Amino acid sequence: MALLDKVHDFPTPSEVHAFAGILFDMDGTLIDSTEAIIKHWHGIGTELNVDPNVILATSHGRRSIDILKIYDPQKATSERKPDPACYLLGRSRLGLPPDSSVLVIEDAPAGIRAGKAAGCKVIGLTTTHSMDQVKEAGADLIVPSLKNVTFQGWDEETGKAKVEISDGVRL
Questions:
Q1: Type and span of the H or E element at 138
Q2: Which residues, 6+ apart, have CB-to-CB distance to 27 below 8 Å?
């Protein structure tokens, strides 16, 4: 059963929250590069003589370099999700102090864990993983897709972005 074929109850009414910053995961959240990723990993799998389906089953939400380190340990790095470094860097580049309220929008369990480890509130999307996987990763709120997250404007007095979240499940 495809992820989107499964019916979920998303009962939370619309809520508006304010955040000093918003950080987005790219793939699966802002764009859908699924077809390109599948083609890429099939090519790499063939080249390395590894079943591409095994690679695809374990690669989502991880950088390609981190997947390749399985086959070449010299390519290992210490800054991969669920390491919070990417979101800590994002907060820093926004010029925000460590205690500022930052929203992370993610679709992958490793990214959700990274956002939480960075001290952010995390909205988990069920676009690429099941609700159970997103819930287990620790998202603060789960929504079906980015369509359920709307930028409402910038509050000049507080210096915060207002975000409306609709049809979510609060955890």
A1: none
A2: 33, 37, 107
Mark the ranges of the chain whose per-residue pLDDT is less than 50. Answer: 1-7, 71-77
Strands 102-106, 21-24: pairing kind = parallel
Nearest CA among 18, 16, 17, 11 for reference residue 144: 11
CB 143 within 8 A of CB 10: yes
pLDDT tens string 54-71: 777 777 666 666 666 554
Token reading at 61: 């939400």
Alpha-helical regions (H) of the chain = 34-48, 52-59, 64-68, 85-93, 109-117, 131-137
